[in-house]
Amino acid sequence: MTQNNAQTLRARLLAARQAIPEADRDRGGLLMRARLFTWLGITRDFMDSEGMPPPARIAAYWAIRDEPDLLPLLEQWDEAGMEVLLPVVASKGAPLEFHPWHADDKMTAGAFGVMEPPRRMSVQPDIILVPTLGFTQQGDRIGYGQGYYDRTIHALIESGHRPVTIGIAWNQSNITLIDPAYRAQAHDQRLDAVLTPNGWVPKEPDYIELLNT
Q1: What is the mean pLDDT of residues 141-170?
Q2: Measured between alpha carbons, how far is 66 from 26 in angstroms, rounded to an integer?
Q3: 189 and 149 in contact (C-beta within 8 Å)?
């Protein structure tokens, strides 16, 4: 995909996302938070019952530009003692760092206007919830074109740490990327799954299976 075509695609996706009615946003956000809460709870219970360490460190994001808002769920996880992480741009073009976040933290504006938690210590997440502008049925992701999540996921895998990656996206018909002509770039990192208000794409992630890939 050429740079001009990518810019046109992103502009279309951003406009479509902005046009989602507020009632649909509220309902869709509630559904996605509920599915994430249920999936993680079942996954943790199963791994605990099998004597395996359950996922404990979850990297999320602070919603901007009409992204699905996960904040109520992040607050719930924080209250329950889960280790919630948020991304920090340590330097331009470098992989993201993920720093611990708590509901009472004072946030500050970082790169690209994204709110960041206090800089404590970079932590490797077990699960990364990735803000996703558009996606294919195979889990290929369109973001904002800066490549931060692709670099970050690649760097984590290269270091020997394999996080489970879940895109969080709206799913109106003009947002999902189903054009057969679309081809991911060589540096793009395919997500393990994408969660939308209608459910999982292509399917609900199997945490144990993915750890062994």
Answers
A1: 94
A2: 11
A3: yes
Residue spans per domain, the chain: 3-211
CB neighbourhood size of 39 (10 A): 18
Tens-place pLDDT, residues 49-93: 999 999 999 999 999 989 999 999 999 999 999 999 999 998 988
Residue 42 confidence (pLDDT) above 60: yes
Alpha helices, H only, 50-81:
71-79
Question: In which order are the strands placed within the sheet that holds 164-168?
Answer: 97-100, 83-88, 57-59, 127-131, 164-168, 193-196, 199-201
CA 126 to chain centre: 12
CATH architecture of 3-211: 3-Layer(aba) Sandwich (3.40)
pLDDT of 173 strictly over 70: no
Phi/psi of residue 60, nearest 5 degrees = -120, -150
Distance, in Å, from the CA atom of 111 to the CA atom of 92, rounded to the nearest integer, reads 8
Cis peptide before 202, with omega less than 30 degrees from 0?
Answer: yes
Q: How far apart are CA 68 and CA 198, in angstroms?
A: 13
For the cut 90, the answer to whether the pLDDT of residue 9 exceeds it is no
Say if pTM beats, i.e. exceeds, 0.85: yes
Per-residue confidence (pLDDT) for residue 89, from 0 to 100: 94
Q: Where does residue 102 rank: exposed (0-12), middle (13-18), buried (19+ CB within 10 A)? A: middle
